[in-house]
Amino acid sequence: MDPNRRAAWSALAEEADDLLEHLRDLPVQGGDSADAVEAEVARRFPLDRPRPPAELVRDASSLMRAHAVHVTHPRYFGLFNPPVREAAILGDALTALYNPQLAARAHAAAASAMERHVLRTLGALAGFPDPSGAFFTSGGAEANLSAVAVALARAHPEAGVEGLAATGIRPVIYVSAEAHDSFVKIARLTGLGTSAVRRIATKDLAMRPAALARAIVEDRATGRSPLLVAATAGTTAAGAIDPIAAIADVAQREGIWLHVDAAWGALALLSPRTRGWLAGVERADSLTWDAHKTLAAPMGAGMFFCREPARLVDAFGVHASYMPVTGVPAEPFTTTPQWSRRAIGVKVLLALAETGLGALADEVDRQVALGDALRAKLQAAGFRLVSATPLPIACFAPANGASAEELQALAARIQRRGRTWISYAVVGGTPCLRACICGFRTEEQDLTALVEELGAAA
Question: Quick one: DSSP state of residue 69?
């Protein structure tokens, strides 16, 4: 082996081994200001001369270790960024090594088959067994964007040629008041305009199907065109689950596309004990699921599932004489919003294969039990819960009351102390603190540490 190559890979292996062995000993959040780190990066990486790869690995590693919120830490209770399986890290490295191009299946037969194997297996859990109607994305936002694009192509195919402005159509997207704000970006990107996003009232933070039905009637009466309703399975702030089956009844009756944004909440599909929480998902026209939120895979690894594979060609199909076309199933460049794309699914497959679905189901059950334990510990420590969900997340505030400013300051003090990490949120209009159990490294002792830090920081 080339000595420079050997030294570089040895440096990377040593860093990985040391980090994984001593992660719990690191502060969850540390480092200097962003401006100071930028200056340090410029100092360490002058680009006017070459340097040995091993030196580059060591410098980059030291910076990333010192200046980051360590989302893989067992006491990170943050924003759906879990620790990653070692096999998934290796899968990411293999993908970079071979650099397969997934625009056309013939150019990356192995990587394409690996992705389809994952999509077939996971899709079957949600009632989407055909991998021809599924693809990997950069994350949930791109998957949600894909749902809107496909729904537009189905309902208004003429808009794909003439544009919405020429057709005079004014589509509407329905989401709950607690839904992810990616739909606001999507409305801008697709030309629908943010006024097309209709926020539906909630009960206990979940969309009210009756309110959805009324909004559809009102919009049709004013000349709007109801396009899509997005039910959320596990809202970002509080983990609320919309009543998917009842929303499916409304969508079916009104003839509009039903999308389920289960970017995080799809973890419930992995265990027989929790699968019923997402009852009705099998009736959806499309689904978002983030492997980097639920399957211990490195970011970004979103997934989009569509009930009717032909709809993908309607939305994304193009002809390019320079691209190979092998027939059925259709080539990825004709069925996705991307063209050149990294083989995202390789790392996901290796993560799944390292654990197995049975062990993964047990892990979901364990995290759910930890969520119950965390809520009990918080209440015993004098906090009140401001939302309810079976998913492993807690939104809470001091029982004797606290202002939004006081809660923000408390969260910031905890983050600066570095022993654990939680965030501030607003849930149903109520300011609160938010703690989410993100992955397989978190244990009961970490819940105790969180409650201790709340007392110390307060």
Answer: B
Query: 73-84 pLDDT, tens per residue?
Result: 999 999 998 899
Let me know: does 410 contact 395? Beta carbons within 8 Å. Answer: no
- Answer whether 0.90 is exceeded by the pTM: yes
The answer to whether residue 29 scores a pLDDT higher than 70 is yes
CB hemisphere CA count around 429 (13 angstroms): 5
Element (H, E) at 58: helix 53-66
What is the pLDDT of the chain when averaged over all its residues? 94
Task: State pLDDT tens for residues 420-455.
Answer: 999 999 999 999 999 999 999 999 999 999 999 999
Would you say residue 329 has pLDDT above 80? no
Burial of 355 (0-12, 13-18, 19+ CB in 10 A): middle
DSSP letter for each residue of 206-254? EE-HHHHHHHHHHHHHTT-EEEEEEEEBS-TTT--B--HHHHHHHHHHH
Long-range pairs of 154-162 with CB within 8 A, sequence gap ≥ 24: 154/257, 154/311, 154/314, 155/225, 155/227, 155/256, 155/257, 156/225, 157/314, 160/314, 160/315
201 token code pair: 């009232």
Which one, of 345, 396, 360, lies nearest residue 375 by Cα? 396
* Sole residue written with tokens 């029982």: 399
Residues 6+ apart with CB under 8 A from 256: 151, 155, 216, 226, 227, 228, 229
CB 182 within 8 A of CB 139: no
State the architecture of 93-355 in CATH terms: 3-Layer(aba) Sandwich (3.40)
Mean local confidence (pLDDT), 144-173: 93
Domains of the chain, residue spans: 3-68, 93-355
Q: Are 404 and 445 a contacting pair, CB within 8 Å? A: no
Provide the pairing of β-strand 197-200 with 171-176.
parallel
Residue 32 pLDDT > 80, yes or no?
no
pLDDT confidence of residue 327:
65
DSSP per residue over 96-159, as a string? HHH---TTSGGGSHHHHHHHHHHHHHHHHHTT---GGGEEEESSHHHHHHHHHHHHHHHH-TTH
**DSSP element (H, E) containing 66:** helix 53-66
N-terminal to C-terminal alpha carbon distance within the chain: 56
State the amino acid at position 376 in one-letter form.
Answer: A
CB 337 within 8 A of CB 149: yes
- Whether the bond between 329 and the residue before it is cis, its omega within 30 degrees of 0, is yes
